[in-house]
Design brief:
Elements: E1 22-24, E2 30-32, H1 33-38, E3 52-53, H2 59-62, E4 71-72, E5 85-86
Antiparallel strand pairs: 1-2, 1-3, 4-5
Length: 87
């Protein structure tokens, strides 16, 4: 089951579970559509995989299968925010 991470790993933008702007690779690295397109050229900087739109979990399933609350940050081209991993 997908983690549905809460933020863009590059710019730290919030990406709620129902965000159509969330993009993921096959390892679930998560980025906003803006970073995926402008900074990353559609490729995950961690694994080199393709970034695709993250599916939206139906609202009635979120109670039983909640999204992750752990924020992940990694260095990203053009980002001035430091890398962090916080809960």
């Amino acid at each position: 089951m997908l983690e549905l991470r809460p933020n863009c790993e590059c710019c730290d933008r919030d990406l709620p579970p129902d965000s159509p702007a969330a993009m993921i690779c096959s390892f679930e690295c998560t980025f906003c559509a803006d970073c995926a397109d402008t900074r990353l050229a559609g490729r995950c900087p961690n694994c080199g995989g393709e970034l695709l739109r993250r599916p939206i979990r139906p609202a009635d399933k979120l109670a039983r299968y909640p999204a992750s609350a752990q924020r992940v940050r990694k260095p990203c081209a053009g980002s001035d925010l430091p890398a962090t991993a916080t809960a």
